[in-house]
Structures are given as structure tokens and as C-alpha cells.
From TrEMBL:
Residues 21-104 form the Carboxymuconolactone decarboxylase-like domain. It comes from the Bacteria. Gene3D superfamilies: AhpD-like. It comes from Sporichthya brevicatena. This is Carboxymuconolactone decarboxylase-like domain-containing protein. InterPro entries: AhpD-like, CMD-like.
Length: 113
């Protein structure tokens, strides 16, 4: 799956409106999420995406943004069971709203996939 498949529309806009800024922003995101490969890294890409998903759920980010990362994580080999268990772990510090926001985002992803 290509990055273009998972590029949020706001990122596409930013890439056109501020290409120099977006180039630097994209480089940091690619490094942090291991989008160019995770060989030799302790934490694989799929788990980096899981962390992002849980953080976005905690922050009550829009479901489409979370669904975008769900697509990336599943595309990188994360199972839905791992995703659900990750959200269950996020329940401990964030409460039921985090868990349910993440699950709603998964349902949204599945409906659009």
C-alpha cells in the first residue's frame, strides 16, 4: 500500500500550500513512524502506528484521522486483535471514552475499507 492511499486530505493540502514546510514535516513523520522501513529498529512500524492510534483516541482526534492510521497499521501487519488489545490498554489511563473512540474509528475504517 502506498503512502498516497493513506494521505489525509489535510496533508495533501499542506503539501501544495507549503511544500518546503511539508517536506520537513513529512521527513519527521516518516522517521518517527518508520514509514521507510523498520529494519534494525527495536519498535516495528505496526506498533508505532498502534501508539499513534491510542494517542489520537486519547486526544479525541477525528475518527477519519484515526481510521487513516488504522489502515496503515493493518497494512503493516497489525491484527485487529492487537489493535483492540492496544485500545484496551489505553483504557487504563484514558478511560472508556478512549476505548470507545478507538473502536468507533475501527468500525469507521471497516465500513470504508
Amino acid at each position: 500500500m502506498s503512502d498516497e492511499e493513506f494521505r489525509h486530505p489535510s496533508h495533501s493540502y499542506l503539501a501544495e500550500a507549503a511544500p518546503e514546510f511539508f517536506e520537513r514535516y513529512d521527513a519527521v513523520v516518516r522517521m518517527a513512524l518508520a514509514l521507510d522501513g523498520d529494519e534494525g529498529l527495536a519498535l516495528p512500524h505496526k506498533y508505532r502506528e498502534l501508539i499513534v492510534i491510542c494517542m489520537l483516541a486519547l486526544l479525541r482526534a477525528p475518527e477519519d484521522a484515526i481510521a487513516n492510521h488504522i489502515g496503515r497499521a493493518l497494512g503493516a501487519g497489525l491484527s485487529e486483535a492487537e489493535l483492540v488489545e492496544g485500545l484496551q490498554a489505553a483504557f487504563v489511563p484514558g478511560g472508556a471514552p478512549v476505548l470507545m473512540h478507538g473502536i468507533r474509528s475501527l468500525v469507521r475504517y471497516r465500513e470504508g475499507a
